[in-house]
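Quick question, first post here. What does this chain look like in 3D?
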Amino acid sequence: MNCLRTISLFLFSFMMLFLTSCSGPLTMDNNGQMIEYPVDTEFLLELPAPEGAQWQVADINSSVVKAIGEPKITIDEAKGEAVYEFTFKTVAPGDSPLKLFCKLKDGNSSVLDSYELQIISGTIGRIEAE
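> Answer (accepted):
Ran it through. Tokens below.
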């Protein structure tokens, strides 16, 4: 019986790893969602790159999720438009907001657009107190 539970846990873990590693990058379609990842998972966030503006991380719990490197501007060949590409990695169990703001590069502080996720790292399902 214990062997069966170990095999089931292994298969479930492998399936979760496969599903998260095969998912495409997060996009504006994911704005406002709660996303779950195992610990030590890298994920990509692609946001449109408006001319003369840039996306900046405004809020993140860096003890749970860390930015990997600097954001890059790439061309989405399918859409033919520029996108900001951010890479993040879950580093510990817990949850973290991930908020970004798009502002003009000229120093104007007005927000053109915003993006927000709730990242859950290292848990199977959301744990809620009763």
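The helical segments are 2-22.
Residues 17-22 have pLDDT under 50 and may be disordered.
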